[in-house]
Automatic annotation (TrEMBL), chain A:
CdaR GGDEF-like domain location: 282-396
Superkingdom: Bacteria
Alphabetical list of PANTHER family matching this protein: CARBOHYDRATE DIACID REGULATOR, PUCR FAMILY TRANSCRIPTIONAL REGULATOR
All residue ranges annotated as the PucR C-terminal helix-turn-helix domain in the record: 447-505
Record protein name field: PucR family transcriptional regulator
Family of this protein: Belongs to the CdaR family.
Cross-referenced Pfam families: GGDEF_2, HTH_30
TrEMBL record, chain B:
Gene3D superfamilies tied to this protein: CV3147-like, CV3147-like domain
UniProt domain S-Me-THD-like C-terminal: residue ranges: 170-334
Spans traversing the lipid bilayer: none
Domain of life: Bacteria
Protein name in the entry: DUF917 domain-containing protein
């Protein structure tokens, strides 16, 4: 609902310039919601609705006087008569005063012209809002507009600075808002803030999954009227549909691409040295270069909260691009695979730059517990599979707990790789199975995961509980049960070390 | 029962006729003088009630048509009305007894049948076609009942006489107004000749007696008092055929509010706070509080202290078949709602 003018505001406007208020000044505060031209013979004034302005053409005096109580009964806000003020007698003015119904004389005004101009004044906000929304819809409606195009259209049409933010508040398009909006974005519901500093309107958009809002449309302005606020809100609602359409289209496309790319990469990884022309063709179709040298990168989540999602993939792609790592990023299971392809063997400083770039990229995603492994540069299609496999193995030993590195890479982790090779050996695996015994039964998966997490997190029950999202007492009970099943005590550092290797080998 | 109307009755009759005039029908002062002279010469007049008439009696109605202001500026010799009745009797060429009555017992027209009756020694019957002041000649209960106006006669002070036959209703009104302009702005009329029985069942009975009664005592019959106050505004619409105007009377304490009176020759509507409180055919009357005499519409001026009263309409105007000719709508008033 738009703000409507009061009778006072109508009188102060240009349309009623030269008009005389003959009576009913006590009703000047009333709002006017509609305008109707009518005759004194109108039998049912209530059909014009309440708070209407009734416009009459030079009514005969007694008819006007008889109309006043009826108009008041119908809750009209004002009577405007196209007549000379002198033609209205004192009894009529007195009655308008008594009824507190403003009576306005507008000399030499054609009835329909006056009614039409008043109508435009009363409904001007609606008209402006409608026109703005129509223009916006025309600009956004031709095809799914990108966030940048949407923000550009909004900024051109609205008296506000608009932006589209991610759920975390990162700007996807437009200038970041001047205000802190964290609390607003956390609320996950449309919100409007108005204060001395101006107004902020926030509207969720995009195809939401669960209760998470994927995107936010934000409009910020220094000073604003009620009418402008309504127009901005209406325009944002239209833009929200456009953003949702864009987001949905984008997601569908990404999902389709993601499935295809994962399939092609799996083909490559499993082909070893025997990469077929068929696989090469698929790789080309995916836009990948298999010739030249490749540096493989695997990125893993370390907890369930950071598991792969469309939003994380998008963000990861953004932060890698920001570090000038223009690599294909493929979703593979719960993790990601990326690689850089270059015509010649990369120099050591190039490899170091990639490592630093990946490290900075992960640091730019503080909310996501991600680690990475970076394989040595390898040539050709088979080399791509090898560097990615190596990256995967390195990512396994990366970690975010104290004493561990978030990014493990082939250039500086030879001792670690030796250890990794030891714990991955067949003999070690065989012995590990003997050591873990009952814990390897499927029914004891939870206990094995608890033990592995406990040992990985430096034997901290609290850290384990946090990582597994269970209570610390639950962890302690599980450890008791593990000790019973293995008939070993976990407070013995040697036992812990042996079990750590066994768990690693048993993965 | 018949009764005698003498010179002593003329003063009260003028007041009562002005009350029934409801602001219209003209100032009877000059006609009162004329009647006083005629009655002084010919003696008092016997006024009969309709029931006393013989069955074969014929009644003719007389009065002034046109502008009373014109008569005041160019008065006649007083014999024009008698000549109109005589010429009508000649035109009727009947051996049946002819009685005279008025067509409008209000204002100046209350006196003219009296003058004719005195001058011709014709019996005067207390019966008329309006019972109050109304604007148009075809606005009579006779017209409502279908009694033809013709044959009728018009005479002027130069001896011109027009006899009209086979013309009725609104057409007759139109002809009379046109002829009257040529005859100096006013003319003496005699018409509506009809059997006493027909006129009796169509006319308004006893208006002359009512005028006399009210003239002697304004409280002689029940009436509504809308209030007393000072006239604060008088507004006339220029260019209208009848005198269209509006009068605002600011009622004094405890009312302390405006009362609006609408006029078209007569006082026809009264509005209080936007609602109708009195309409024609009831007789709305503004009395000058200084003299307690009824005011004509055109004589109401800002500053006058007035008493606004409403006397009941002649009962004939409330009957089905008659009411439409004297209702507000008959004067062009209309409004939505009750």
């Amino acid at each position: 609902m738009n703000a409507r003018p009061t009778v006072s505001q109508l009188l102060a406007g240009q349309v009623l310039e030269g008009a005389s208020l003959l009576g009913g000044a006590q009703g000047l505060h009333r709002t006017v919601t509609d305008v109707h031209a009518c005759t004194p013979a109108e039998a049912d004034l209530s059909r014009f609705g309440t708070h209407a302005a009734l416009v009459l053409q030079s009514p005969v005096g007694y008819q006007l006087e008889m109309l006043l109580p009826r108009a008041r009964e119908a809750q009209a806000s004002v009577l405007a008569v196209c007549a000379e003020p002198a033609a209205v007698l004192g009894s009529t003015r007195w009655l308008a005063d008594r009824l507190a119904l403003p009576l306005v004389a507008v000399p030499s005004a054609p009835l329909l012209d006056l009614a039409q101009r008043l109508h435009a004044l009363v409904h001007g906000d609606d008209t402006n809002r409608g026109l703005t929304c129509a223009r916006l819809a025309r600009q956004l409606g031709r095809r799914p507009a990108s966030p940048a195009e949407t923000v550009h259209a909004l900024n051109a049409l609205l008296p506000a600075q608009c932006a589209i933010l991610s759920a975390e508040g990162t700007p996807l398009a437009g200038e970041p808002p001047a205000r802190q909006l964290d609390h607003l974005l956390r609320a996950a519901a449309p919100a409007t803030i108005r204060d001395e500093a101006g107004a902020v309107i926030a509207l969720p958009a995009g195809s939401a999954s669960g209760r998470l809002v994927p995107l936010w449309l934000i409009a910020e302005t220094a000073d604003i009227t009620d009418s402008e606020l309504n127009t901005i809100t209406a325009a944002l609602q239209i833009a929200a549909w456009a953003v949702t359409a864009w987001s949905a289209t984008h997601q569908l496309e990404a999902a389709r691409n993601s499935a295809f790319q994962a399939s092609v990469l799996t083909e490559l990884l499993t082909a070893g040295d025997q990469v077929t022309a068929h696989t090469v063709g698929h790789a080309l179709e995916a836009g990948w270069t298999l010739d030249g040298w490749h540096i493989g990168v695997r990125i893993l989540p370390t907890d369930t909260a950071s598991r792969r999602s469309q939003a994380t993939t998008t963000r990861l792609r953004q932060v890698l691009a920001a570090q000038r790592i223009s690599a294909p990023l493929v979703e593979l299971g719960d993790s990601w695979a990326a690689w850089l392809s270059e015509p010649d063997e990369p120099a050591p400083d190039r490899f170091s730059a990639v490592v630093a770039g990946v490290r900075r990229s992960l640091a730019a995603m503080p909310g996501a517990a991600l680690v990475a492994g970076i394989g040595k540069a390898q040539p050709g299609p088979a080399g791509l599979a090898r560097t990615l496999t190596e990256a995967w193995e390195l990512a396994q030993i990366a970690g975010i707990s104290p004493g561990r590195r978030r990014v493990e890479h082939a250039g500086a982790t030879d001792p670690r790789r030796l250890v990794l090779a030891v714990v991955s050996g067949n003999e070690t695996v065989r012995r590990s199975h003997l050591l873990l015994g009952a814990l390897l039964e499927p029914s004891n998966n939870v206990l094995l995961e608890t033990l592995d997490t406990y040992l990985t997190l430096e034997s901290s029950a609290s850290a384990t509980a946090k990582s597994l999202h269970v209570h610390r007492n639950t962890v302690l009970k599980r450890l008791d049960r593990i000790e019973q099943l293995l008939q070993m005590r976990l407070d013995d550092p040697a036992i812990r070390f042996a079990l750590r290797i066994a768990c690693r080998a048993a993965r | 029962m018949s009764w005698i109307l003498g010179t002593d009755d003329l003063g009260p009759l003028a007041t009562g006729a002005a009350v029934l005039g409801s602001g219209g029908a003209g100032d009877p002062a000059l006609f009162e003088l004329l009647a006083r002279q005629v009655l002084a010469t010919h003696g008092p007049v016997t006024v009969y009630e309709h029931a006393e008439l013989p069955e074969d009696a014929i009644l003719v109605s007389t009065g002034l048509v046109g502008s009373i202001t014109a008569f005041t500026e160019k008065p006649g010799n007083g014999y024009e009305f008698t000549r109109a009745v005589i010429r009508l009797r000649q035109a009727l060429a009947t051996s049946r007894p002819v009685y005279v009555c008025g067509y409008e017992t209000a204002g100046v027209n209350a006196f003219l049948p009296l003058i004719v009756a005195a001058q011709t020694q014709t019996p005067l019957v207390d019966l008329d076609g309006m019972g109050r002041g109304l604007s148009w000649l075809d606005q009579t209960t006779y017209d409502a009942a279908g009694i033809p106006i013709a044959p009728f006669t018009l005479t002027d002070s130069h001896g011109h006489t027009v006899v009209a036959e086979a013309i009725t209703g609104h057409e007759a009104e139109r002809y009379i107004r046109t002829l009257t302009v040529s005859m100096g702005g006013w003319s003496a009329f005699a018409g509506y000749p009809a059997d006493a029985t027909a006129v009796g069942s169509a006319g308004v009975h006893g208006a002359l007696a009512r005028a006399l009664r009210l003239g002697r005592n304004l409280d002689a019959e029940p009436h509504r008092r809308l209030g007393s106050g000072r006239v604060s505004e008088v507004s006339w619409q220029p260019g209208t055929e009848a005198a269209h105007g509006s009068i605002v009377v600011w009622l004094g304490p405890p009312d302390d509010r405006p009362l609006r009176i609408e006029t078209r020759n007569e006082f026809l509507l009264a509005l209080d706070s936007g609602r109708i409180v009195a309409t024609a055919p009831d007789i709305i009357c503004l009395l000058d509080q200084r003299t307690m005499t009824p005011l004509l519409t055109e004589r109401v001026l800002p500053g006058y202290q007035v008493d606004v009263r409403v006397y009941p309409a002649p009962s004939r105007w409330t009957e089905p078949g008659f009411a439409h000719l004297a209702s507000p709508a008959a004067f062009g008033y209309s409004w939505a709602g009750p």
